[in-house]
Amino acid sequence: MENHQAGADKTDEISALVLDPGYTVVRGGFAGEDVPKSVVPSFYGIIPSGPDRKRVYGENAIYTPSPNIEIGNPMSKNGLVEDWETATNLWEYAITSRLTNTKPSNPMTNGLNEKTDELKQEMEGVEMQERPLEENPLLMTEAGWNTGKGREKPIEIAMENWGAPAFWLARSGVLSA
User: Residue 105: is its pLDDT beyond 70?
Assistant: First the structure.
């Protein structure tokens, strides 16, 4: 019995992330905690900047008065996603801004590495795209009336884009019961 307890002390515990996207807010946190650590408005600002339109997320982005800002929401009022690209960016913002660390800056431009000539060799096997959830499993909620395609897309985003090692999509009504 003592050997089993000694082995348990050596293992690292990895908490699953819980993401609850809704029409008004996106809530995120770690499994087992009482309250979410990340509560981000689902509404985002659209600022026209030249030929492109820039999207800004977070409380300060939509509550700070700004000329020519439009307010959008990737979710419909019944809780289904209408704009997958924006929903993905919003969910990633909710996860990376408060739950995992913010995206690291490029070490070549952070002022610590002055001689860049020596580091021009490419490293084999290094992925250039950051994967914010590669260490944390993800539980995500969905509306009970979500369609089959509406269920496939979050799985694709979590596994392929974010690198989640495990993913579970659960209906919000079942989780609240």
Answer: no
